[in-house]
Write a structure and sequence with these properties.
The chain is mainly β. The chain has nine helices and 39 strands.
């Protein structure tokens, strides 16, 4: 058997699913059959070659991009986007599955309480309804944060803008901060807080960069970024210029993390593309102007800012080896300890380019392990559109795994962490391929929606071409979200959308954030929708399962908000992992607390916390179904 045959290297995407997803990374220590073992060796050799090619290409100057020659709809890239290779999928009423497939009698998981909660007072706005230029398409993120330290999560929704607003011809759309009233409703406090942004917002990350115990907000825009410093009194001050992190260009999903172990949060901001609002490019499809893919644009480089500890930052991107000199189109990022060496690594989701996995070298620099790890491409060597990143240990093996949302007519990709910085793509084995192909994914996250102790998957969906509704391709502009229940740590199964429920909401979704908004032990979802009101999905599952949530407070040698901490909880014979991280999803920031579902178990045996400082701490929880505060110095509070 040759490498080409078993690896599927030359096969198209649809071919021979049975041969995909073998167990690369575990060698034969797991007792693989002989054929599988040699297949793993074969893949390892191919990944080594890819790694060498990636290293060589990284040393070369990328070829110039002619931005005056955008992709034609008849060129390879745009043809793939507009002419699907898979047959259309319709439900029994002949609705496209992306806006149908509702199942009478299906269990009610999420209730759409957007209007009742008062969240629909916000309306997102991005360009024109036709979406004829690329900047109008990606939409904006959303953050969940407790900005006033009252113990309840608030909501911060970024807004888009218009080309006319960029030129001062009309008022710019405004972001909105919604205060949690503790009664299921939210109040707009944007004006008082001073966080309207009024720039074209794409990504948001929350982190306490000055370790004063109050969360700060970084907003990545087209135009200069914002760093909103929390003033402790319900207001914020934009200090981006003074801090040296304003940038100026098109930037997307940022992330905070202490990459050098000095106890202070550093900031990573991925660049997307260089866009000229005075010369916006459009493509033509059947006489209609549509947005072109990013391939006709030069990419914006990425930036890592080192926290100087005095309110300012230094750009160390080149020195650290994460500047992205090739100009890939970065959409999302996050810091997390992938290889469990006690130092956070960095992952970047790039649109239509190989993804980055930067492994922390412990000396202020990173190794580009993207190809050698298997994270850069799918297992058969294809790039992904890579809109968002979900972070979580779905199989409870103690290692953090990742899920990448992807374009329509392709599938979202699940990467299992095999340890030592190596990933296996296991999407087929997990049963996550067929049901995601018609959908175009954006915000995504692992969450235990039913508190059974296994992390499930949520994806917010929405297409980029409004004209898609005029085609008979089995997909739509507005799409329903998808929820996949983790059956056993190996397989997932889509939860059918009950008619009228939150899973049946057909929306042009983009950013998505996850957290317990009502402090009831259930994980809720907030979605920022393009040109629409947002969607607030309240988790209404009532199955008697138990839970605990931990709010971590770092000591003097850790970030105060404990970003970078890892928590292991043992209960009912299972050991779960949760990480405190910033960013991820698509341009969004989720609940900074860690949540564990316990199933029917009523006692937690052990909680182990690995703090960013390197300290390990064990705490005993006296009960379940409660939110606990754990201080690195003082212990359980």
């Amino acid at each position: 058997m040759g490498c080409e045959t078993d690896f599927g290297w030359r096969r198209p995407f649809q071919a021979d699913k049975a041969l995909r997803g073998s167990n690369f990374g575990s060698a034969n220590s797991a007792g693989l059959p002989k054929a599988e073992f040699f297949r793993s060796l074969c893949r390892a050799g191919i990944l080594v070659v890819l790694g060498l090619l990636g290293s060589l290409s990284a040393q070369q100057t990328p070829p110039p991009v002619d931005a005056t020659q955008p992709n034609s709809p008849e060129s390879g890239y745009m043809r793939v986007l507009l002419r699907p290779t898979h047959p259309p999928v319709f439900d029994t009423q002949h609705r496209p599955i992306t806006a149908g497939g509702f199942v009478e009698g299906a269990p009610l998981v999420f209730e759409d309480i957007t209007h009742r909660a008062g969240v629909d007072k916000f309306h997102h706005h991005s360009g024109t309804p036709e979406k004829s230029t690329i900047i109008e398409v990606p939409g904006s993120g959303v953050a969940l944060l407790d900005y006033d330290n009252d113990g309840w999560l608030d909501i911060y929704l970024l807004n888009g803008s218009t080309l006319a607003a960029l030129k001062g011809k009309e008022p710019p759309p405004r972001a909105m901060l919604l205060h949690n009233n503790h009664d299921g409703t939210f109040t707009d406090v944007t004006d008082k807080a001073g966080v309207a942004n009024e720039r074209w917002g794409f990504g948001v990350a929350v982190g306490d960069y000055d370790n004063d115990g109050w969360p700060d907000i970084y907003v990545a825009n087209f135009g200069k970024g914002r760093l909103y410093h929390n003033n402790h009194n319900g207001t914020f001050t934009d200090v981006a210029e003074k801090a040296g992190v304003a940038l100026d260009g098109w930037y997307a999903g940022p992330s905070w993390g202490d990459y050098d172990h000095d106890g202070r949060l550093d900031l990573f901001v991925p660049g997307y593309a260089k866009f000229d609002p005075d010369n916006p490019q459009s493509c033509n499809f059947q006489g209609t102007k549509i947005s072109c893919g990013p391939m006709g644009l030069a990419g914006e480089q990425d930036h890592l800012f080192h926290n100087n500890g005095d309110g300012t930052f230094t750009d160390v991107s080149v020195k650290a080896g994460v500047s992205d000199p090739k100009g890939y189109y970065g959409f999302a990022s996050t810091f997390v300890d992938v290889d469990d060496d006690g130092w956070v690594d960095l992952l970047v989701a790039n649109d239509s380019r190989p993804n980055y996995f930067y492994r922390n070298r412990h000396d202020g620099t990173f190794e580009d392990a993207s190809y050698l790890s298997g994270f850069a491409l799918t297992e058969d060597g294809r790039v992904m559109a890579s809109m968002g990143i979900a972070v979580g240990d779905y199989n409870r093996d103690g290692k953090v795994d990742f899920y990448i949302s992807n374009f329509a007519d392709d599938y979202n990709v699940l990467f299992r962490n095999e340890g030592n910085g190596v990933f296996s793509e296991v999407t087929y084995q997990a049963g996550l391929v067929e049901s995601t192909i018609p959908f175009l994914g954006w915000g995504t996250g692992f969450l235990d929606f039913d508190n059974d102790g296994l992390l499930d998957l949520f994806v917010a969906n929405g297409h980029v071409f409004p004209i898609i509704d005029k085609q008979n391709w089995g997909t739509t502009w507005a799409q329903r979200p998808q929820l996949f229940r983790n059956l056993d740590g190996v397989k997932f199964q889509e939860v059918p959308p009950a008619p009228g429920s939150g899973l049946a909401a057909v929306i042009p979704a983009r950013g998505a954030a996850f957290g317990d908004l009502f402090n009831d032990g259930n994980i809720d979802v907030v979605i920022n929708n393009l040109d629409s009101a947002p969607t607030l999905l309240r988790n209404v599952v009532k199955n008697g399962n138990h839970w605990v949530t931990l709010k971590l407070i770092g000591g003097p040698k850790s970030p105060r908000d404990a970003i970078g901490a890892k928590v292991f909880l043992t209960a009912g014979g299972a050991r779960q992992r949760a990480d405190v991280f910033s960013g991820g999803s698509y341009g969004s920031n989720s609940d900074p607390r860690v949540h564990f579902g316990l199933g029917s178990t009523t006692k937690v045996d052990k909680v182990e916390i690995y703090w960013p400082s390197g300290t390990k701490q064990e705490v005993t929880l006296p009960r379940v179904d409660q939110i606990f505060f754990v201080d690195e110095v003082k212990g359980l509070k």
